[in-house]
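Human: I'm a chemist; would you kindly supply sequence and structure tokens for a protein?

Assistant:
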Amino acid sequence: TWEARTNRCVDIAMSPPSGSEEASLNVIRVLVVEDNQMNQKLLSNMLTGIGVVVTTADNGEEGVAMFSKMSTILDLILMDIGMPVMDGVEATHAIRRLPEGSRIPIIALTAHNTKTDRDKAFEAGMTDYIVKPYSRAVLQDKVGHYVRQYRLRRNSSSASLL
């Protein structure tokens, strides 16, 4: 089950005391959709090291299913492009078609750095693009940037409904 594959870690500097409602709102939750187990482990380690809760999926089909179950608590998706079963482009199209999938930031992860590859990712609805291998700093900067933007938009939408 997806619950068993979630790596729980809370950034002390970012979160209020545990047990508070505010604490759970400040935890960053990222879905990593990556077929390569070594890459999954590397990403999980980099992200949990900065206080992010990481859930992994082995392919795009699994990623879409996990997103459907977790959409209300996720802040960002890191999506490999080349995967079996369903690739990252197809998975992004599927997520974007879901009502709750239109605004979630999806960052492409790929070893291919051609204009055609980037164009395919952006046409599918990906928010940004990171080329492998990447540094911890690049990953942190992109995750931080898009999570802040997403939360601001989500909070302003919630406020306008009141």
Summary: Residues 10 and 27 are 6 Å apart (CA to CA). The helical segments are 21-26, 37-48, 60-70, 88-97, 115-124, 136-161.
